[in-house]
Amino acid sequence: MVATTDLAGDVGEILLTEEQIQARVAELGAQISADMAGRTLTLVSVLKGSLPFMADLMRAIRLPLRIDLMEVSSYGGATTESSGLVRILKDLSSSIEGEDVLIVEDIIDTGLTLNYLVRYLRGKKPASLRICTLLDKPARRLVEIDVDYTGFTIPDQFVVGYGLDYGEIYRNLRFVGVLKPEVYSAG
To answer: Which pLDDT tens digit goes with each residue over 160-180?
Structure first.
């Protein structure tokens, strides 16, 4: 991948503005707070892409909460397709046994990675396990995933920004945009 200095210029279309994202995150936080009232929640962020989403979401949730981080991969470097092989690169730091757990994802695409992660975390015996994703791309789904909270359903386009990357770049854009095909097909 060629380094770029015009991150926003590599985006062909802004799919979700910063304002749309922030408004929806506030709604999700309120809904989660109401649904989980009276409980302490453990948020599990799936690194690296969900970090901005989790940071904003946890501030919108009005409950006592803990956070933990996992890094799970089914992609290999600068690619737009999942390899199907799921690897845990960083496991939880604390036990979630008996905890109410919310997996915080940036995007659900094929569902293969999340399906693996859900089975893995269920084996750790949480009291409950729910899923919150910023983006859902159902056109690419290969396995059924029950999502409790969805920010936005998006079309089958390659998106970057607000944590989502291509070759580890573009995560810092404050919006979600469609990457120009020539950026990821040149190479």
So the answer is: 999 999 999 999 999 999 999
Token look-up 């799919």 returns: 15
Catalytic-labelled residue, pool 56, 106, 109, 165: 109
- CA pair distance 68, 45, nearest whole angstrom: 6
Domains of the chain are 18-154 (3.40.50.2020)
Closest listed residue to residue 136, CA positions, set 118, 116, 114, 151: 151
Closest by CA position to 71, among listed 105, 119, 95: 105
100 is catalytic: no
- Mean pLDDT, the chain, whole residue set: 91
Count how many Cα atoms sit within 13 Å of the Cα of residue 166 in the half-sphere of its side chain.
29
- Rounded CA-CA distance 10/134 in Å is 22
d(CA 182, CA 40) in angstroms, rounded, equals 46
Name the DSSP letter for residue 169. Answer: B
**83-129 confidence digits (pLDDT tens):** 567 889 999 999 999 999 999 999 999 998 899 999 999 999 999 99
